[in-house]
Every structure is written in C-alpha cells, then in structure tokens.
C-alpha cells in the first residue's frame, strides 16, 4: 500500500484517488440516474438529460424533498480524476494488480469515449418517401438559421447561425450577424424556443411584430423536444444601414423566406441543425410486415440505394438491429409514415447517428474483460498452486509421521 | 512548483516495461490535477456573444433543405401553398388565419407536372393535360354537378375501358383512397388494353383515376396511357392530385356552361367554426356551408346556411308543410321567436313532426326542424337544421352559435 501522505497536496491527491470517493461518486451517479428517470416522466428526456447530466449541480426532486446533488459534469469529472489517481497512479503495481490496472484502463477508455460522444456526436433523422433521395439529416433538437443564394445551382453554400448565437435574444434584445460574402447584415431578435403562428385579428394588441397579418406567439417549452417549434424575427439591412425587409422565421415552415439584396435572391430559414452525409440515400421500397390479422407492424425495413461520392451505387436493406454503418455514420430503421402521409405513401424514418466514438464501448469492454480475466485466472492459478503446495506439504507431513511410527 | 509524489511499489517488479518502471518516479505537476477541471470548464464554457457576430459556420449542400418559392404569403410559406389552398376549400375559405390568395383566373388551382403541357379546356375536360414526350398519354379532370351515375358504375365504366369486368363485392371492399382537396377520394389503378372514348387503343395501357364527391358534385381525375408511361408518371399524377385546390377568387369549375351545374363558389357570407361539427364547403348553388355531426344512432344531423330569393312567410310556410304543420299567416309569423342575425332581426321557426323531403312523399316521424331566417333586400338568408327531434334539441345552442357567427363577407373576392 502507498505510504500515508503527510503534505496537503499529498493528502488531497490521496483523497482524490480514494476508494471512498469512488463509492460516493457511484452512489451519486445512482441517485442522478434514478431521480432523473423519475423526473423524466414530467419533463421529458432532453430536459432531464440537460438538468441532471449536463450540469454542475442539480436540485433533484426526490418526492417532496429536493436534494442538491453534484451534476453529471462534476460527478464524471471527479470520476476521471479518481480513476486516474487511484486506479492508475496510486495503485500498487505488482503482478497481482496487472489485471486490475488493465480493467481501469478499459474504464478510462470508456469514459474518454463518452466525452468524445458528448462533444462531437450528433443525432438526427432523415425522412424519405419512396423514390426520394437525401444526403442530409436534421437533428431532433437545436436550431440554426441558414442563408443561401436562392438561385444557386449545383453545390449550395449555406451560411449558418447556430442557436447558441441567438438563443439569448428574448424580449427586445437583438444581435447583428455579418459575413463578407453576404451583401447585407442580418438582425435577429425575439427568439422563442417554442412558438405558434397566429393571425393578428381579434387578438387585441399582438405580443410580437405583425408580418403579413400574422405574428409569432411564444409558447411554453414542451417536454418532448421534437414538439417545440422555434421562432425568431429577422431584419435584413443592406450596406449603408438601409433596411431591406423584415420577416419572421418559424421552425416548422415548409418554404424559406425569399428576399432580394445586392441584386440577388436569397433564401433564409430557421430549421433544426442540419448535417450533410458523405453519401446519399434513396428509398426504393419501404417494407412493413404486419402481425397476422392486425395493422401492427411485426417488422419493417427500408430498401435503399446508397450513392457514394464517386457515383457508385449500393443496394442495401436497413432494418431493425441491422443499421447501415458508413463513414462514421450509423443509420438505423427508426419509424415509418402514417397512412395519410404524402406525397406518395409510404415513407420511412431513419435515425442517423454521427458518433466518432461509436466503437469505443466495444473496445473498452474488451479491455475490461481482458483485465478481469487476467485477474481471475491469476487468482485461480494462485489458488491452485497454493492448494498444490498445501497438498504437497500435507503429504510430506504424513510421510514424516509414517516414518516416525515405523522408526518407533 | 513540482511535487514529487511518494509512490512506492511493493512485491515483484513489474514485468511490462519501462513505462511502468518510470511510474515509480512519477513527477506530477499540480497543473495536471487541473486538467479534468479544464475539461469540465470547456464543457460549460460558452460566453454570451457580442452585439455583432461574424457568421463563421458554412455548409456545402447539394440541394436546399427547403425549396425557395416565389410569391408566397406568410401562411403559404409556413404550411405550404397546397395545404393552405386545401384548408381554404375545407373551411369554405373562411378559416381564421388563412389570408386571401392572390387573384387568379382559373376556377381551380393546380400545378402542371413537369413534362406535361396544358391544352385548352373542352367539354368534360375542365383540366386538360398532355404528356410532351408521349402525346397519347393524358391527364384529364372533369367536374359534374351531380354524382355522374355513382361511384361504382363509374369505376366499372373505367374498368370496361381496360377490358375488365364489373367489380365484385370484394373489389369494392378493397378500393383504396387518396387525399384530394383534403378529403378522401377513391383511387384506382387499372391496367389492360385501354380504349378510351376517343383515340386509338393502347394494348398494354391503362388508367389511373380518382373520384371525389362532395355536396352533390363529383370530380373525376384520370391519367391514361401506356403501362410504361403510367408507371413512370405515377408520381406526377399524385403530385397533380395533391396540388388541386379551389381558386376562391372564382366560381367553381362546375360553373362551366357545358355542365350547367352549380359548384363551389365564394360565399357572400362568413361564419365561425362550430366545435364538434364537421364543416363542409358546399358546391351547391343554394348552400353556403353545411355543418354535420354524427348521431348516437349512427346517422348524422346537419345544419346549413343558404341564400335564396323570397320572403320569410313563404319560406317558413314551406318548412311547416315539410314537417306536417299548418301554414303560417302574418299574425303567426309575428309571434315567432326573434334572433339577431346579420345585424337584423331574424325569425326562428321550430317544429316537430313527420318530416318529408323536397320531393314530398311520406314523412319520417319523430323529426324536427329548427330554422332561422332573415330578409334582406328581396333575398333571404336561412340557417336550417333537421334531424331526430332529440338531436335537434340537443344541438340548439350550436345552432344559435352558428346564427350568431354569420357575417357579411367584408371584401368580396
């Protein structure tokens, strides 16, 4: 065992790597998971995920009592420190602990994978009717304002304003956005995370500016993230500060706002954050196999054609538990369209996941398994050797006794 | 400051290399401890942007995520042009929140599919399209002010054009639907040796068609041509069906002299939605709108708004006759309940009895009429509800709500 530290940094170092800290963190993680799961019923998964796990502190609801607990950032941050200090640095490094160290390396790898996933992954969906082709997917939550030349042909360069740049623009606050390639500035204001479009007739004084007889009304955020339709007001200001036009952008809008500036037509839309895939998918056929005599799906799958950048086509089937993995994307069969979907029923909904650490859990579990197997086998071999030594010892003692008797 | 940590290994030396041996003399800087905190700080580190921000994110797309379209109103941009037009038709052009469409000249709004060209309208061809690459392929819309003989006979007629026999009960039960004008239309795809009313026979051809009935009128839409064309143009046909909408700035398609009937038109009146009732845009010459609600017995009860020439006494007397009640005279008329209707004092007539239809005949007992009527410049506007007496009584407040919601259209289109 390591020598007991006497200095303050040494004591702190020892405390950070202690077994008791690990136990306390595990208990806290259990409480976060348990209470968060209970609260998810009321608040929805995205809200609880943010409140309990993507936070420093959380006021967790345990029935009538509220508990102030360290949030996911603090818990996992300390876990990393604890693992590093206690499981890799302070641990006795002997033959007997090799397996434990390997297992700790596996856990550290899993944690690193989680951090990479948290920081760099994106999730979304792509909806395809039969015959439709798409090479982009949209996130379930999170918004962006996209601007592009409405007359552009071929490759279209979109200029993007992420939600983090305008999420704080409630009330009268506004912010100006500029880009050298754009012959105008964009002023965004009155962002609403959930909104509804209303006619400005018979409603008294509208709560927001009226555009084309309508205005956006802010609504409480829905616990189901997909049911929130953000809204924001936008003003276009040409060079020289002359206002060109203003309008409102609503997250559910089918068509973009089209305006003229600098002699060109521009399109602007508020949409869920959108990502380009390095290939396109075309839905050839959606297949749904119902339970006998029922309209309930037993299984469903999508026959798609994946077209790579070089133009080569691959016919594939995406179905439950058999996702398409390609270029860092994992595409799952997630859902399908209702009977009244259009145009051209039916449609498929594919969940798209971009997770650079997708394979890390597999690898880390392998490493942890190796470490544990090493430990268990070493213990088993040690035990067997001990038993053998014991047996040999006993045989020796019996022989001596026998010899003693015969001598007597 | 650097801290040398008192790390000591016990037992046998490690067998796996220099890295482990060097751990014996591991020197840690306190800054190493700050690493996880720095990571955590990075996770939360998002400062508030300034008043002016440069757009730094870009994305190259091969196609726009949303299709730019010219000349859309805000509502059309929000919900889609076709959806707004369909909603206008569904609600009789009167749903709050839907702005008037731009002025147009066609009685129907529709999109000509790519690769198709439009020909002049002709008898029984209210919309007349032809495929450019194969002129034998056609897309035709016909509107009739009546049921055109009925759904099944018309589909059987289409089946006959491709050499198929009449439908069996199983065929009828298996008929599919598509949404046209926001409502269900019967949809068929028939393949065989196609011979239309005119033109050459197409041996390996067929017909895709949709039939939609409402308010007494019937809309027939069909695409004919070779099998290859039909298969290739299926999506075009569907998109054409999806694009169909009534141009509220014009009369209905059935207003064409060739058909001589009456169809959907812009009403001079406006009214509010009635909770629990389905609103049907009327294509009848006399009805402005019909509201319908199912009854507990599986039937339905309806109330409707209509306009006509005439006076109150004659019309209320006619209603009395329909329900088996004695005719009214001026004195009886003066005693009727009154109601505010279109800014005037209207009459309310309510009676129960055996109700007969417009054509006379034996009446259906246990029925009721609840009607309101107002006279204005030689015209009358009536709101009338008929049905089982108990149902009519139960719906009285909804009826009065409809009467109270009536307004003259502010900007005739």
TrEMBL record, chain A:
The keyword Repeat does not apply. It is a multi-pass membrane protein. One of its GO terms (biological process) is cytochrome complex assembly. It is found in: Membrane. The chain crosses the membrane at residues 12-35, 67-89, 96-116, 360-381. Pfam families: ResB (PF05140). Keywords: Cytochrome c-type biogenesis, Membrane, Transmembrane, Transmembrane helix. Residues 272-339 form the ResB-like domain. The keyword S-adenosyl-L-methionine does not apply. One of its GO terms (cellular component) is membrane. PANTHER family: CYTOCHROME C BIOGENESIS PROTEIN CCS1, CHLOROPLASTIC. This is Cytochrome c biogenesis protein Ccs1. The gene is ccs1.
UniProtKB/TrEMBL annotation, chain B:
It comes from the Bacteria. This is Uncharacterized protein. It comes from Saltatorellus ferox. The lineage of its organism: Bacteria, Pseudomonadati, Planctomycetota, Planctomycetia, Planctomycetia incertae sedis.
């Amino acid at each position: 065992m390591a020598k007991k530290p006497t200095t303050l940094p040494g004591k702190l170092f020892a405390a950070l790597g202690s077994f008791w800290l690990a136990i306390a963190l595990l208990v806290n993680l259990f409480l976060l998971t348990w209470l968060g799961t209970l609260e998810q019923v009321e608040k929805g998964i995205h809200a609880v995920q943010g409140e309990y796990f993507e936070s420093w502190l959380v006021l967790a609801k345990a029935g009538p009592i509220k508990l102030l607990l360290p949030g996911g950032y603090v818990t996992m941050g300390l876990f990393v420190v604890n693992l590093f200090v206690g499981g890799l640095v302070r641990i006795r490094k002997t033959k007997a602990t090799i397996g434990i160290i390997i297992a700790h390396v596996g856990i550290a790898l899993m944690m690193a994978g989680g951090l990479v996933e948290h920081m760099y992954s994106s999730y979304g969906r792509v909806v395809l009717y039969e015959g439709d082709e798409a090479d982009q997917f949209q996130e379930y939550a999170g918004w962006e304002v996209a601007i592009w030349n409405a007359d552009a042909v071929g490759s279209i360069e979109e200029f993007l304003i992420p939600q983090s740049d305008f999420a704080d623009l409630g009330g009268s606050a506004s912010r100006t956005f500029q880009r050298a390639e754009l012959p105008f500035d964009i002023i965004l204001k009155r962002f609403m995370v959930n909104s509804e479009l209303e006619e400005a007739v018979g409603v008294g004084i509208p709560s927001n500016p009226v555009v084309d007889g309508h205005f956006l009304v802010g609504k409480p955020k829905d616990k189901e993230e997909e049911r929130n339709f953000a809204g924001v007001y936008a003003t276009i200001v040409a060079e020289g500060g002359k206002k060109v036009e203003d309008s409102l952008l609503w997250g559910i809008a089918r068509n973009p706002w089209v305006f003229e500036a600098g002699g060109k037509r521009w399109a602007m839309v508020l949409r869920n954050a959108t990502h380009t895939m390095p290939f396109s998918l075309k839905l050839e056929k959606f297949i749904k196999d119902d339970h006998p005599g029922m309209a309930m799906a037993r299984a469903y799958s999508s026959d798609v054609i994946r077209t790579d950048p070089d133009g080569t086509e691959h016919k594939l089937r995406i179905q439950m538990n058999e996702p398409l993995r390609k270029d860092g994307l994992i595409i799952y069969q997630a859902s399908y369209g209702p009977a009244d979907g259009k145009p051209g029923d039916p449609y498929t909904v594919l969940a798209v996941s971009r997770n650079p650490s997708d394979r890390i859990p597999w690898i880390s579990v392998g490493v942890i398994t190796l470490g544990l197997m090493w430990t268990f086998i070493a213990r088993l071999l040690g035990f067997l050797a001990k038993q053998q030594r014991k047996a040999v010892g006993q045989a020796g003692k019996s022989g001596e006794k026998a010899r003693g008797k015969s001598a007597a | 400051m650097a801290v040398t940590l008192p790390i000591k290994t016990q037992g046998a030396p490690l067998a796996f290399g220099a890295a482990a041996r060097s751990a014996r003399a591991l020197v840690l800087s306190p800054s190493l401890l700050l690493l996880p905190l720095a990571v955590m700080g990075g996770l939360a580190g998002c400062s508030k942007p300034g008043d002016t921000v440069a757009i730094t994110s870009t994305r190259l797309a091969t196609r726009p995520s949303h299709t730019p379209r010219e000349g859309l109103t805000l509502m059309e941009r929000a919900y889609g042009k076709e959806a707004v037009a369909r909603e206008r038709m569904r609600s009789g052009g009167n749903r709050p929140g839907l702005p008037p469409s731009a002025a147009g000249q066609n009685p129907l709004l529709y999109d000509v599919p790519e690769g198709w060209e439009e020909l002049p309208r002709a008898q029984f061809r209210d919309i007349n399209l032809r495929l450019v690459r194969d002129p034998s392929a056609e897309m035709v819309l016909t509107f009739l002010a009546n049921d055109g003989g009925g759904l099944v006979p018309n589909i059987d007629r289409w089946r006959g054009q491709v050499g198929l026999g009449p439908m069996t009960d199983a065929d009828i039960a298996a008929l599919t639907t598509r949404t046209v004008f926001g409502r269900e239309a019967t949809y068929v795809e028939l393949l065989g040796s196609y011979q239309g009313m005119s033109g050459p026979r197409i041996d390996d051809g067929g017909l895709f068609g949709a039939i939609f009935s409402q308010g007494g009128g019937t809309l027939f839409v069909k695409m004919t041509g070779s099998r290859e064309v039909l298969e290739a143009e299926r999506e075009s046909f569907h998109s054409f069906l999806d694009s169909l909408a009534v141009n509220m700035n014009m009369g209905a398609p059935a207003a064409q002299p060739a058909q001589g009937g009456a169809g959907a038109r812009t009403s001079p009146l406006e009214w509010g939605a009635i909770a629990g009732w389905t609103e049907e845009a009327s294509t009848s010459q006399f009805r402005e709108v019909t509201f319908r609600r199912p009854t507990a017995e599986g039937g339905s009860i309806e109330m409707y708004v209509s306009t006509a020439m005439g006076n109150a006494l004659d019309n209320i007397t006619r209603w009395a006759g329909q329900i088996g009640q004695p005719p009214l005279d001026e004195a009886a008329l003066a005693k009727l309940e009154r109601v505010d209707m279109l800014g005037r004092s209207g009459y309310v007539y309510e009676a129960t009895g055996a109700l007969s239809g417009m054509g006379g005949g034996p009446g259906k007992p246990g029925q009721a009429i609840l009607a309101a009527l107002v006279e204005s410049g030689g015209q009358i506007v009536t709101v009338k509800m008929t049905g089982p007496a108990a149902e009519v009584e139960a719906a009285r407040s909804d009826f009065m709500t409809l009467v109270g919601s009536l307004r003259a259209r502010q900007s005739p289109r």
